[in-house]
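User: My notes are a mess, but here's the protein and flavin-adenine dinucleotide's SMILES. Can you give me a structure?
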Amino acid sequence: MIAAQLQAELAGILPAGDLMVDPSELFVYEFDGFTIARARPGAVVFPTSTEQVVQIVKLLAAAGVQIVPRGTGTGLAGGCVAFENGVIVSTSKMNRIHSIDLRNRVADVEAGVRNTALSDAVAQLPGGSAYHFAPDPSSQRASTIGGNAATNAGGIHTLKDFVSSNHVLGMEMVLADGTILRTGAAAGCYESPAMDLPGLICGSEGTFGIITRLQVRLVPKAQGFRTIVATFGRTADACHTVSKIIADGHLPCAMEMLDGSMVRVIEDAFHFGFVENTQALVLIEVDGIEELLDGQMKQIVAICSFNNATSLETSADPTRRAALWKARKSAFGAIGRISHSYCTQDACVPRSMLASVLEKIDQIGREYGLQITNVFHAGDGNVHPIFLYDDRDENEVQNTLRAAEKVLQYCIDVGGTVTGEHGVGIEKLHLMNYQFDRPTMDQFQRTKRAFDPDERINAGKLLPSEVVKVQILKPGRHMPQ
Ligand SMILES: Cc1cc2nc3c(=O)[nH]c(=O)nc-3n(C[C@H](O)[C@H](O)[C@H](O)COP(=O)(O)OP(=O)(O)OC[C@H]3O[C@@H](n4cnc5c(N)ncnc54)[C@H](O)[C@@H]3O)c2cc1C
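Assistant: No problem, the inputs look usable. Here's the predicted complex:
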């Protein structure tokens, strides 16, 4: 609970529906998609304007209360978990699209606009169906553009379209003292003058300030697509296929991989008729100028066959394509059919190491008696081992955390990174020192303090904090002290 006076002052800024203090409602805001870490916030506020954000931030700073920015809470690293009595500032009601400028291919949106809501709005305009906002995390129907920028979200088409920071041109952010920072390219322009502060803020996971508004790039959709589904009897063959396709100079717009257990989950849920005993499935898409696509598809099919694909399906049919991608994007949800709880890990490794990493994941799973299933963005080496466990069993929770740590350490050891796209949050805080050397960590800390000198915003996330001590991994859960 927050102090009665602070509650009254917040109520003076916000209408009743935009201030949440009832414990039975706050319960929902105890965690994000990383459900292992939980802490009840003192309050959740839903500002609807930048001016309200400024007033709220000033009030909370004066009261010495930690501020936790949140979009829609789909994050998978505990980034928007509030420490005891911290206040969550959710930008989810700041969801106006201020302008869509198709001539200059930019849009000006509030931070709480959902990812697909922008492309849907663009498609409604005359000539707009040819354009979209490209970043496409699988959560895109729910997650916000502010959250996408804060986590520098990737997605299925990152291989060709790149991560969110490549699509953010400008930004408005409220700093810890209430200053409004407006930075980035001038309206309608594509280049940031001087320092690229929006580039720096992307991926800062809500530790620099509260993003309230963004200017983003709109890009043309490809003219045509070909979708290829290849199944394999051996995971290593699928991994070699992925590396070979890139090594041969192809750039598919997406290249996703599902392991055998995931294929079975999807098959049970969607009945695609995939070959029985499939150990890996690779879903590949090429896009571009219609006339060139069949030739490119043939070359990729040849690579799959050479690497012992057990079945191959190619399609130019938009309905089939939509069904295949819907199945891929629904993969996380379908896990609910086989497990009480799950925890999705996220690392990026060199593509050439994929086979070895998957083998290691399997070995670690057996060591800890855990089932681990995999569905991931193979084309950019972004692995997502999904640990299946029962959160009512503390032993299984602990084993999941230990096994996840071992997997991430292995990924770092083979030249990979502690996170591919989900961010560090509190989940991976303890591995930051494993990945980065002292001078780099010190520079990260100095950068954080340049934006937020007193660590008032989201302290203890992404970087260890002197102000907020987080009890890390062993021996208990990731709970704030
Ligand atoms: C089923 C599923 C699939 C997913 N697939 C992908 C995927 O393919 N690629 C991917 O990258 N991620 C994926 N994610 C993770 C998640 O959806 C992304 O990280 C997304 O960008 C989070 O957006 P959000 O609005 O939910 O942010 P939240 O979860 O609310 O917050 C995430 C982080 O951003 C900060 N933040 C949020 N809003 C603001 C703001 N306005 N100002 C400052 N900081 C802010 C928070 O403090 C927190 O640190 C997936 C999640 C789920 C549940």
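The mean pLDDT is 93.
User: Great, I'll file this with my notes.
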